[in-house]
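Hi U.,

Before I forget, here's the chain from the pilot set. I'm dumping it here mostly so it's searchable later in email.
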Amino acid sequence: MLLDDTTLTVIPASSSALVETVSITGSHGGDQYANGLVSLTNGSGINKANPDDPSTWTMNGDAYQAEWMATYLKAGNVVTPGLNGKVAWTCLDFGSKTPLGMLYLFNTNYSGGTSSTDQFNLYYAESPAAALPAQPAKGTFATTGLTPQADYNFSGGWTLFNTAGPLNAAKAGITSLNLPGVSARYLAIEILSNQGDSFTGGRVGFDEIAITAAPLDSDSDGLPDAFELANTDPPSTAALDPAIDYEPDGLTSWQEYVLDTDPMDPDTDGDGLNDGPENVGVGNRPRTNPLLADTDGDKLSDFAESNTGVWGGAADPGTDPTKADTDGDGLDDKAETNTGTYVSAGDSGTNPLNPDSDGDGANDWYEVVIIDSNPALGNPPNSPNDSALKPNIPYPLPAPDTSTGATDKPVKVYIMAGQSNMVGYGQVAGTGPGTLQRMTTTESKFPNLAGPGGTWTTRNDVRYRGVVSDPGDGPLRPDVAGDKFGPELGFGNVMGWYHDEAVLLVKPSQGNRSLMWDIAAPTTPPHDYAVNGNTYAGYGQSPGSWNTSTGQPFPGVWYAGK
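Structure:
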């Protein structure tokens, strides 16, 4: 699935020759004109970026006007393989049957998306039973026989090469896949899962594709000459048997080639687990990456994290090697040393298998944050009697329900008038440190804000009305004022939890203004400020100020107290 308003480029990815792409057909992600299908051929609205490179394609920035838009993946969609279940697929046509070597997918998420792992199926065919659908004209879905997601049936004439392969979805992520033995005219990528942007609906896909031709294989055994030469002594292009497991580690030489592991080293990443068991998962251990000693990046090796769920000591914490924070409390497994003694945020002494180690109702991460702000409090994350750290307001807050608040009681109104300290500077989306998206999805913090399927929760019992700096009007949710949020998010969620009544938050704050600027009472008089020679507006006057000697108020859209 191509990303909206972007460039699709097939670029050199290795020393192997690139395969020429004749045309591209698929479901294309965008925000408008939900035609659902894009069919790109040379001369039909896109150009080859480099005429000297037949594998390079560019889709120009007029994609919206060109009607190459489709319904993008919506958060919470259930994507089921099979007809009428695909919402994201792209097919490349090479013009004729071609021996293929490597597939590269680049930049699989846009800048506001969630860094995560999607899944995709890969199909290939020489002559599909069902022709690829033609791009419908604007507004003609009803006559195409296609769903709005531009569905296509891959059952006839297609071979499934891999099932639910991992698609790296970091912004600059690169997914590569060996295609040994694949010779085909068509190659199709079908995205199965939605791990995109959690606040606007979830766009996922890829910006760039590279397909390389099959490398030289002198003995036609499926192992490229370069692979055999690199792994034999003396070097030979025919010495390796693709069916033999030489170490052994549970993988044949052909499987090692596909996985890019070392056919002569049973433990390529040196983590203490052999490549074969790592690739499939054994017992309690889930599948981990045989090329990474620490699959989840929590600074505990895959070998140490046995996934038993039982603490066996520092060398066997029982944690999950695919989750940096096994218990989901906001602290990485490495930091939770289970010693019972708090040292620092990096050595909290808490249990990595229990989000509330001392059972006092306060989440471990919350208590660690409080101790970091006041180290004199000592050793409370592991002491159930740490009343100084147990909040009157629970953490995490219960997730909001659908209630709109009691209707038999007056609405609770809070006016959030302030200067720049009240303006929203928090970033909702993005994968960088400090963004709400990262804190909720990656760091497991503030779970009351994160809804199912990557959505945000909504407090229907709290209404936000922002004017001036942070305009917004609607039930309280992280993105009610756009991609920025301020103290209204935390305050409003607490007030919604605390009050039975409905709550209204009015936020007129703006930097470098007095607290009463926009909520001036009807009797507020103008004020002469001798220091700068200006008069500041009283109730009903505009603009905000004028020169006392030469200026005067005059009618405007805004007025003090509006």
